[in-house]
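Progress against Task 2.4 (sequence-to-structure conversion) is shown through the following example record, which the project officer requested during the mid-term review.
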Amino acid sequence: MTSPRTYRALGLTLRRSPVREADLLTVVYTREQGKLELLARGAQRLTSKLMGHLEPLTLVRVSVAHGRSMDQITEAEVVDAFPAVKNGYENAARGLYVAELIDGFSALSVANAELFNLAVETLEALGTERNADLALRYFDLQLLRSSGFMPELYICVECGEELEPDRHRFAVGAGGTLCTECGPIDVVVRPLSLPALKLLRLLDRTESVAALPELAVPPPLEREVREALTATLQYWLDRRVRSQEFLETAKFA
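C-alpha cells generated for the chain above:
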C-alpha cells in the first residue's frame, strides 16, 4: 500500500528564511509530526495565496505535499496569529523566546503533543494581562520536563535524601538540587534560596499556564529563578539562548 502524497497538519511557525527570489524555507512545529522544515514556493510574491500566512508565531493549518528533497506547503490557513503577542515589542520578544526554545529542544519529525500544547498555551497566556514573566518561567520548566531534562527539585541528587528548608543548593550539571553536605566534583554549584525552591515547585505542580496563580513575584526572586532555569536550558542546548538577550533589551527599551 502506497503512502499518501499529501498530508495536513496543525503547526506553529517558528522561523522562516528566504530561498531564491520568491520561495521560503519555513520551520513549523506541528502537533501531528513534530518539527518540520517545509518549502513554500512563491510565498514571497504579493500574489501568492501563502503570503502573510507563514509569519513566525502563527498557528496555521497546512496542506503539505511530499517532495523529493523537501516537503512543500501547498495550502495554509491561519488559525491564530496571536496579535496581542506580536503587537507589543516586549511581548514579541517573549514570543520569539518561546519559538527559539521549541526549535532548539525538538528534533525533526519527532512528535510531542505535550510540547506543542505548551507552546500554544504559553503564547495564548502572553496575550493576556497575566504575569508574562511567570508564564515564561512555567514554560521553561515544563519544556525541560517535556524534553526529558526536568531538574530534581525535591531530593538531593547526590545522596537521595529529602531536602531540608534552607539546606539546599542547585547544580545544573548534577541534575538539580543538592543538600549542603554533598558536592559532586567538576560541576558548578549555585545557591538556591528557599523562596526560589518553593516557586520552582509551584511551577512544577501547576497543571497549566492558565492555572498559574496571580502572584506578585519580587524582582530579585524572579531573577534568581530565571537564572537557574536559563542555566539549565543553556546546559542542555549547549549554547546561549539568543532571544534571552533580546528580551532583556526589550524590557528596558
